[in-house]
Design goal:
Layout (H helix, E strand, L loop, with lengths): L9 E4 H4 L17 H11 L3 E5 H4 L6 H18 L5 E3 L18 H20 L4 E5 L4 E2 L7 H22 L4 E5 L8 E2 L4 H8 L8 E3 L3 H6 L4 H10 L7 E2 L18 H14 L5 E3 L9 H27 L1 H10 L16 H9 L4 H5 L5 H12 L4
Parallel strand pairs: 1-2, 1-10, 2-3, 3-4, 4-6, 6-8, 9-10
Antiparallel strand pairs: 5-7
Helix pairs in contact: 2-4, 5-6, 9-10, 10-11
Bound molecules: D-gluconic acid and manganese (II) ion (2 copies).
The site of one manganese (II) ion (MN) has 6 residues, from helix 8.
Length: 387
């Protein structure tokens, strides 16, 4: 019943199911599983794709011969398990050289190295046919603002993206770049902390049409924001190029929990939004299993992400077909057409004049409430399976 299909475009990163469960206070608890094993597992559970950072697949110090071998083995595993690579990205955060950022480091050598590393990683992703290229600026930020100009940082970030857009065009890769905002962690504060700030930044680039966003549920929730509202704004701007689904309790560290494990209603509205508008990009689960999980439980975690999405998708269809819910919505959004002469559509001086002359019965209009309590309860009952 909740069988994943290719058309659902469920993806995981090598770093997600492959996460060995280390945290800032504890060593890894699971053995590192190889990229080939990850692909096998993803094939088994019916995922469509796998994404990677350059060094998830090819160690940073691999020789050209080792790299070639890894690429050919990985290609074989993908074909054997019917798994594709829709997205690639660069690890610009793990190596000590990025301790003060990558594209926004105060050191021009670091900034140049970050761009070089990204070009190489774009070459690698293109080998596998990836069409989305994610930029998560995990180290692009500060702990103290005493030593770095936020204006310079923004300029360097822009210069790097402009350079890489040109490289993308020159190579004919056809990537769409997706900026992934996050408010903090691992930096005290990260630049471009929210979807809204990333959207504003994109408009300042040389090739804004090539660049969109990769919003992550947990990241907006860490900032105390409503994720569904964020993706709606990105969608409206034509910028929802990718999405990282997971979960998080507000006000906590970056938890990257299984999708739907915490905020069930929010997860429902996320799925509802994506399905209702017909989003057809990857549904990427950027999450990892609890540290207490063993490898068998990691597999359950991955299956859980997919199943939860499909359950919620079914609930969306129920919501849309529920006559009581739909009647309430019709009541809530009722429009007798009397205002169309004034608002909606283009401005005209006649409209402005007529609207200024119209007299509103404020008390009568204000007396009308909205049955949101009733509707919200119906949604709850639907989600609980008693409707
Ligand atoms: C995080 C981020 C990362 C990125 C990944 C791909 O909080 O750790 O979400 O997982 O998504 O680096 O860009
Ligand atoms: Mn995250
Ligand atoms: Mn992410």
């Amino acid at each position: 019943m909740y069988q994943p299909k290719a058309e659902h475009k469920f993806t995981f990163g090598l770093w997600t199911v492959g996460n060995p469960g280390g945290d800032p206070f504890g060593y890894p608890v699971r053995r590192a599983i190889s990229p080939l094993e990850v692909v096998e597992m993803l094939g088994e559970i019916g995922a469509w794709g796998v994404n990677f950072h350059d060094n998830d697949l090819v160690p940073i110090d691999a020789t050209p011969a080792q790299k070639a071998q890894i690429i050919s083995d990985f290609k074989k595993a993908l074909a054997d398990n019917n798994v594709v690579v829709p997205m690639a990205t660069t690890d610009l955060f793990r190596e000590p050289i990025f301790r003060d950022g990558a594209f926004t480091s105060n050191d021009p050598k670091v900034r140049a190295f970050a761009i070089q590393k990204t070009m190489n990683a774009m070459d690698l992703g293109a080998e596998f046919g990836a069409k989305t290229y994610v930029f998560w600026g995990g180290r692009e930020g500060t702990e103290t603002d005493a030593g770095k100009s936020a204006l310079d940082a923004g300029k360097w970030f822009r210069d790097a993206l402009n350079f890489l857009c040109e490289y993308n065009m020159e190579q004919g890769y056809g990537y769409r770049f997706a900026l992934e905002p996050k408010p903090n962690e691992p930096r005290g504060d990260i630049y471009l902390p929210t979807v809204g700030s990333a959207l504003g930044f994109i408009a300042t680039l040389d090739h804004p049409e090539m660049v969109g966003v990769n919003p992550e549920v947990a990241h907006e929730q860490m900032a105390g924001l409503n994720f569904m509202h964020a993706i709606a704004q990105a969608w409206d701007a034509g910028k929802l190029f990718h999405i990282d689904l997971n979960d998080q309790r507000g006000g906590r560290y970056d938890q990257d929990f299984r999708f739907g494990s915490e905020s069930i209603k929010q997860a429902f509205y996320i799925v509802k939004f994506l399905e209702d508008v017909g989003y057809d990009g990857s549904r990427h689960f950027d999450a990892h299993a609890y540290r207490s999980s063993d490898l068998a439980d990691v597999k359950e975690f991955a299956k859980g992400c997919i199943k939860t999405y499909l359950i919620l998708k079914e609930k969306v269809a129920k919501f849309n077909a529920d006559s009581e819910i739909q009647a309430l919505l019709a009541q809530i959004t009722a429009d007798d057409g009397s205002m169309t002469q004034y608002i909606g559509g283009k401005y005209s001086s006649e409209k402005a004049k007529a609207l200024k002359a119209h007299s509103f019965n404020r008390a009568e209009i204000a007396a009308k409430g909205q049955p949101y309590e009733k509707l919200d309860q119906l949604v709850f009952e639907l989600l609980m399976g008693v409707r």
